[in-house]
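Lab notebook, bench 4. The sequencing result for the construct came back, and we need a structural model before the next group meeting so we can plan mutations. Quick request posted to the team channel:

Model the 3D structure of this chain.
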Amino acid sequence: MNLKRITIGSRGSKLALWQANWVKSELSRLNNGLNVDIHIIKTSGDKIQDVALAKIGGKGLFVKEIEEALLAKKIDIAVHSMKDVPMKIPRELHISVITERENPLDALISKNGQKLVDLPQNSIIGTSSLRRSSQLLKYRPDFEIKTLRGNIDTRLKKLDDGHYDAILLASAGLNRLGLSARITEKVSYEILLPAMGQGALGLESRIDDTKINEVLTDLDHKITHQTVEAERALVDFLDGGCQVPIGAYATVNGNLITIRGLVASLNGTNVYKLEKIGPVNEAVEIGRELGNDLLKMGADEVLKSVLQ
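Done. Here's the predicted structure in token form:
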């Protein structure tokens, strides 16, 4: 290999830079003499902090400018949280690598160290996620959900300042930033089914950049790649974006993959939840089949009502 330098494109948040620096260290470890730079790109999602994502265009806001830099060859690879990657990406690009998944569960951080079941009646819960809020309201209809945006430090400070009784964040981000001690409870997926790809990092590159794609290969984690592709197939079949409360979580045991899917109304009154098991080498097809099964259950009515 005669590749001497790689430039990573990343958002500028503390978590995004942790992720980019982890990829940098892994590439340097696996490729002696390779120089790896990080180029920070401010995305639309970073610039707009006071409005819920569902109202301003969804998760694609965190990747659009980075993909533009990739297409313009200003960077060689992009590092994304897979839960932020939209279903449709430019045809010249692909998610070439998905790294080994961190803990995929949602984390509750409460003001008084109380778990979800013990929180007082009418507690104020902070989250920017429709997926989290709808499932929470199904579990505890008494909760008051208030929008929470900003980076992890900002969200924790808002909790500490008394604006919320508890907040919900991804366990993976807290773990990566050394903030695991702040977690009151890692919420079971039976109560809060995670977001598609939560806890996994994706490396996006140009399809025709064979040298870069070859260098990245060693960072791919096969089981994580299979499970995330299955989850994405489910969400893609449902045509779901940030505006729709959809959960998707897959696990592999031997040669079998189990995919769990959920579609919920915004207020949590209608929740359709199923799981499907099949051969892991048919992961994408099983994800699509599960999406179809959810629609047959009645999830299509929820999707129509949310998107109308």
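The chain is about 35% helix and 25% strand.
Will bring this to the meeting.
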